[in-house]
Amino acid sequence: MHLDLLIPALLPPLRQHGTDLLQGMDLPALSCLAARGTLSVEPWENAEAWLAWRFGVSGSAPYCLEAEGWPPATGYWLHADPVRFDLQRHGLTLADATLFGVSREEADILTADLSAHFSADGLAFSAPAPERWYATSRHPLPDVRPLAEARGGPVEANPFRGDDGRWQRLWSELQMFLHQHPVNARRDARGEPAINSLWLWGGGRAAEKLATPYTTVHAGHLQARGLQSLAGGRHAPLPSSAFHLPAGDGMALVVLDALRLPAAYGDLAAWRESLQKLERDWLLPLRQRLERGTLASLGLFLPAPGGGHALQTRRRDLWRIWRRPALTTLFEQACP
Q: Could you tell me if 42 and 310 are in contact, meaning their C-beta atoms sit under 8 angstroms apart?
């Protein structure tokens, strides 16, 4: 069996804060894999781009809708997630719905009113979950960073790469519409933060034919689950640890994205705690499987802004005992 682990947000905090961030941490399995595996450069800047490449598609929204249990996403869909912009000394920062609540009623009212207001622009909004909204569009969306990467950071004046002005205009109008909406007036009266913008990203059409490279995908990540489902492959919830990961033949993918939220909002203590848990619950038992031969090879895929890395380790690589386990092997190359 070959296993791929997709681990976003491992490299970015280390590139920003340096490897001193790992001081005092006990990471023997990651150290061993870093020392004895083969490291290569990957162009993928985030998990969503990596998944689209791996399955040979573009876009995220139609595949997330599949995982939401929504009707088949015919036509062009994009993410239109409710967010809040806050003015800080260094400019606007973006907070997503993990930091503020959105009720089912608020989501239904806002998406219905947005659809009515922007119907002439070819937009229609839906909310399969209160904190996750989508829209259909007659016009394709330019490339925009995924919400998981944009949250917690500064907001660009124009996040739509290659835009001819259409989407920036619509985005500004969306913000004015939300600013004046009675839902936000009621939130303000209750002392709750306003939903003052939407983050538009991940547009695309569902592929007519889709194949999966994986026998099974284990993930809570909606895009990964939706891609595997539409390709007709097996998918399952993410187990609590590798100890509960079924053994078998073929190739499997596990998406481990617990580092993303603390990395986005700069909670370095929570990030360290999540990395230590990843080591204990996943990397240590998987290294043991490699040693026993119940796992033939293990791939770690580490996307990051500016380019990520892949770390491939086969069972026989563990015999490279002259390569002493040290994280410097990985991070001196991956975090220049």
A: yes
